[in-house]
Amino acid sequence: MVSSRSKLLSELRIQEVQAAALQVISRKGLAAATMQDIADEAGVAKGTLYLYFKDRDDLMERSADFAFSNLEARLDATLPALPAFSEKLFALIQTEIAFFDEHREFFRIYIAFKHRPEELHQSSRRRRMCQSRYLTHLEKLAAMLEEAMTRGEVRRCDPARLALFVSESAVALMLRRLTEDSPPDADVDASWMADFLLHGLSAQTSNHRKGS
Question: How would you classify residue 185: left for phi > 0, otherwise alpha for psi between -120 and 50, otherwise beta?
Fold first, then answer.
């Protein structure tokens, strides 16, 4: 039986390797990044990598999962402390955009990796909908929206569907930013998106706010 200490050390080592993979793949690209490069970055023997990962593709996939886990941890540490829904919504979008900016090259490579011919038997959105981490994120977002509805900050509707709309809108914006050489500042895009999600597309609503 593996001891709790050994299991903890293994988990820490895996996280170190995943963090190293994020850095190396971001710098060199997936094609140029070798398992030896990642091992050197993590400070472990190359053979150690194969104790935890089948190959480079497996390491890429699990490093992305590691990154998304870190993003969710940031959101969990930030959102509950904010009192108003408008603040929570801005912080949600701004944190996600800033995180993608921080790991911009890795995510550009990861998107290309997921769109290889052998990966395209189902859409990227369908794959995302099947991931337990993403489903958990949607549940948390729906709960946040339900709370805002109860307080009268958001009009009453199906919180699960609204959570999906908000999340997929943010994903679309972040994917667009990955294709831009010089995307707007994270705060600018976060403010713009939060405003439209809160107030909609109506020009009358916008004019009413300006005149109020």
Answer: beta
